Predict the structure.
Amino acid sequence: MRPVQSYAIAVVASVALHVVVVGALLANWQPDTARIMVQPQFIEAKLVELAPKAKPKPPAPQKPKVDVAKKQNDEKKRLEKLAADKKAQEKKRLQQEQLKKAEQAKKEKQRLEDQRKAEEKKRQEKAAAERERIEAEFAKALEKERSEVTAKNDERVANSYRQLIQQRLSENWSRPPSARLGMETLIRIRLVPTGRIVGVTVLKSSGDIAFDRSVEQAALKVEQFVEIQGMDPGLFERKFRQVDVAFSPEDLRL
Amino acid sequence: MIEENLSIWSLIVNASLLVKLVMAILFIASMMSWVMIIQRGLVLSAAQRNFREFEDTFWSGVDLNSLYNELTQKAKQEGGGDGIENVFRAGFREFNRLAQVNGSDPDAVMQGTDRAMRVALSREDEKLNTSLPFLASVASVSPYIGLFGTVWGIMNSFRGLAMVQQATLATVAPGISEALIATAMGLFAAIPAVIAYNRYAAVTESLNSNYETFSEEFSSILHRQVHTN
């Protein structure tokens, strides 16, 4: 067996094997429960049209046979017959005319009816489209309003939590002798969802190390904001992972 | 309308780049290992058949000179020659050359012949063993590569989970399912490679020992010849 030949066979067989395996996987492994479809919750209305069946045309009236072969036989008879024929013809013609008229009237009526139906249908379709549009707009507006309300609500809740944090911090703060009015320290508190403080860093120093330390100590002393446990996790992720607090002793008179 | 498609293909397509890369590597490894498996299978079975045929002709009492000429002719046509025939030809050629020298020491002739056959044997051994190391490494490494892809995918899916407020099984399941494909592919590549490696290693071993036995027997025949002359 020549090496080149054996390699060629091997490559072809290997590729074929993989194609078969991949094909089998792609073809058969579509699980039944894979598609989760949520059907819209409304009933689709459909216009059902009852098209009247076209009436079969009345059979064409047979023309009376006019016998002229026996003309020489009997003139009188002929004349009589002619008169009778004429009468009959006249009658027939009248009848035919009447029939025709009736048919025409019927056709006209049908046409009008059809037109009316088509118009009705068009009108209904238009109304449906309009209604859909209005509904969509309404839904959009509702959605927008809802999100605005949510954002507002969030802000309100967040503010109340902020106040709480502020309060706790000032409760736990012990004033160092070097604290002066107008000093401000910005600290960043890192929280976990249980409300426990996992880190305090001074972002902006007040210039007085003792004051900075006292603020830091206040945060560490609080240890845990128990109330935060009840907070909506989404809100927590957005706003309370890290809380920046500016601390300034405004109540002091010094 | 929410539509979640969980077919294998969509899972592969939606996987992260690294996981895709892992899958691609595994797919290629599987391809190549199958090429090696089939090619080796063909070569080894041909070698086994060849050995049986050669032994039959050799022990049928054919004239060694004519056998040698015939085999040389065949080797020229095919460019190279196969397994046991090469060992025989190398030994016989060396023996003839040394024996033609006048007054040569029989022991020296035998030593030269044995050496030539040993060289041919080790060449054949090398030929039989080609690409077995590749199979061995695919067998041992591809499960790890697949596992890496899976771990990475699960890591990502859990990281995404941390941001979700309500974690249901449905939020984790697709990610994990997607990640597990990598392991499946790793195993798919590894299992045939392991089986093939073990089998071919055994076949190679037995062929080698067959070659060695033959070379010893041949050597003893030549030994008898050189000492009776």
Q: What stands out?
A: The longest helix of chain A spans residues 75-171. Residues 172-247 of chain A form a domain with the Fusion Protein Consisting Of Minor Coat Protein, Glycine Rich Linker, Tola, And A His Tag; Chain: A; Domain 2 fold (CATH 3.30.1150.10). Chain A touches chain B at residues 1-3, 6-7, 9-11, 13-15, 17-18, 21, 25-26, 29-31, 34-38, 40, 232-234, 237 (CB under 8 Å).
